[in-house]
Amino acid sequence: MRPPIRLRPITEDERQRLEAGLRGEDAFKVRRCQIVLAAGRGQYAPAIAEGVGCDDETVRDVIRAFNERGLGCLERRSSRPHRIRTAFSEATRQRLKDMLHESPRKYEKDTSVWTLDLAAEVSFEQGLTSEQVSGETVRLVLKRLGVGWRRAKRWITSPDPEYARKKTHATD
To answer: Which residues, at least 6 apart from 7, have a Cβ–Cβ distance to it below 8 Å?
Structure first.
């Protein structure tokens, strides 16, 4: 079992600012002040969470933030990811685009129509991505390349190499 997380000692100036924050209008800041002050009194995360009405992991996050940033933890920060990992590199994006100009049958698929999920599957099989991605990821990559994606339309085609010749002779 992990040892309980401990709050660093609160200075008198910090305590006054935390108590003043309890009377603020921003609910985010008020809740954070409540959590830090309760942790300063020696309460444990589950008890603080029950009293404040949040999850105990949220309490631990606030305590860690206060230990690292001090009163800066009272300010709301962006919830966006700090780094974004791209599934397709610049080179593999172009290879994906080129792949979609070919038939899925070339990649041993039983269809002549690309779907986003099929493109994601084949791109993984061909080593364009290091892990299986979703069709939505493929759509976003194509959007960045300026390629619009529409729902696949079914056309009558055949894998038979003599299909075009047979088709023209059948209509005579």
So the answer is: 36, 39, 40, 63, 66, 67
How far is the C-alpha of 49 from the C-alpha of 3, rounded, in Å?
17
pLDDT digits (tens, 9 = 90+) for 41-92: 999 999 999 999 999 999 999 999 999 999 999 999 888 877 767 888 888 9
The answer to whether 54 and 31 have CB atoms below 8 angstroms apart is yes
Domain boundaries, the chain: 12-74, 90-152
CA pair distance 5, 96, nearest whole angstrom: 48
Q: Residue 40: in which H helix or E strand, if any?
A: helix 27-40
Angle of CA points 8, 83, 132, to nearest 5°: 125
Would you list the DSSP string of 95-136? Answer: HHHHHTTS-GGGGT-S-SS--HHHHHHHHHHTTSSSS---HH
The two three-digit tokens of residue 127, written as one number: 């080593």
**Measured CA distances, 118 to 94, 96, 125 (Å):** 17, 12, 10
pTM of whole model > 0.90?
A: no
Count of all residues that appear for the chain in the document: 172
Model pLDDT for residues 86-131, shown as the tens digit of each residue: 888 888 999 998 999 899 999 999 988 899 999 999 999 999 998 8
